[in-house]
Amino acid sequence: MAVAIFLIAVAVVLVVALLTAAGAALLARVDNATWPTALTRAAGAFAAVLALAAAITAALAPLLT
């Protein structure tokens, strides 16, 4: 059961990261940014969401064990 919850949590984090990256790229394109700039902003947003998820996991790990 724990493995299933872990996999669902990872999937949710990845979906949120992808949606955030797509939103960042869309907003960059609306702001007349070039495609490479939009992709760079999307990659930064994707990495930021993953880093935030890792930080939250590290902060909550002692409480869950």
Brief sketch in words of this structure:
The protein has two helices and no strands. The protein has 65 residues and is mainly alpha-helical. The protein is elongated and about 50 Å long.
Rg, Å, rounded: 15 Å
Mean pLDDT: 96
How does the major sheet shape up? none
Low-pLDDT residue intervals, each spanning 5 or more residues: none
Secondary structure class reads mainly alpha
Number of helix segments? 2
Strand residue percentage: under 5%
* SSE succession: HH
**Tally of DSSP β-strands:** 0
**Morphology call:** elongated
Distance between the termini: 16 Å
- The proportion of residues forming helix, as a percent range, comes to over 70%
Structure in words:
The chain has 65 residues and is mainly α. It has two helices and no strands. Helix 1 runs antiparallel to helix 2. The radius of gyration is 15 Å and the shape is elongated. The mean pLDDT is 96.
SSE layout and pairing:
Layout: H1 2-30, H2 35-64
Feature tags:
0% strand, 65 residues, 91% helix, mainly alpha
